[in-house]
Write the structure tokens for this entry.
Amino acid sequence: MNPFASPVSLNMQGQYNTPNTHKYSVILPTYNERKNLPIIVWLLAKMFEEHQLAWEIIVVDDASPDGTQEVAIELARAYGEDKILLKPRAGKLGLGTAYIHGLNFCTGDFVIIMDADFSHHPKFIPQFIRLQQAHNLDIVTGTRYRSTSTPYLADAQPGGVHGWDLKRKLVSRGANFLAATVLNPGVSDLTGSFRLYRLPVLRHIITLTQSRGYVFQMEMMVRARALGYTVGEVPITFVDRIFGESKLGADEIVGYAKGVWQLFKSV
């Protein structure tokens, strides 16, 4: 019998006698997210306040020409400059370095990384937190490719993808299959970018990670496993962006395949 599926365990999961005193820092890399940013910030703020959690959002913008930074400034005025921190960069420098830059300004105990384009819904974050607390995990990652969480969490629903055509789904599945076959990381969704880390764990792994761009997420998880950090998975529903265009192109796909090979040789 799964010990986490017992009635006693199910009743206990997510229930605590003392309030959660941790602070959660969200790093949001942005490029041309003027329309999406107010929505995702509102959803994050609402979720954190409803669960009485301390929080901050670090917006790392890569010189968006659409006015994203101006929107972030207005959001900081609305929610407070201690809640919304705009930390811009001079140009479009890549996803991996955006997280590295954002880490310099995090004051929380845990860091949440996610997309700003509404692909990752904040409603899953409380499940990330419950799973982390129940099993004292170092990392919790969202997965599109599991029907239950690991370790078990009572209210987790099957993951999935909405808004992708068949080609995009095949590319994502193929990328994860390639990495799982070659690297055997024990994680079902290596290419996902919706995760919760302990702050010291993320800082440690990020100093060892060499990849940039979309390979960055895969290498982070592979190195975490190699270093012995504990990882849990929560099924999520990934929804294609509401506004704007996907930044995934042929160069990123080729780079991902090269990244898998380099990790196979080095980790």
Notes: The first strand starts at residue 23 and ends at 30.
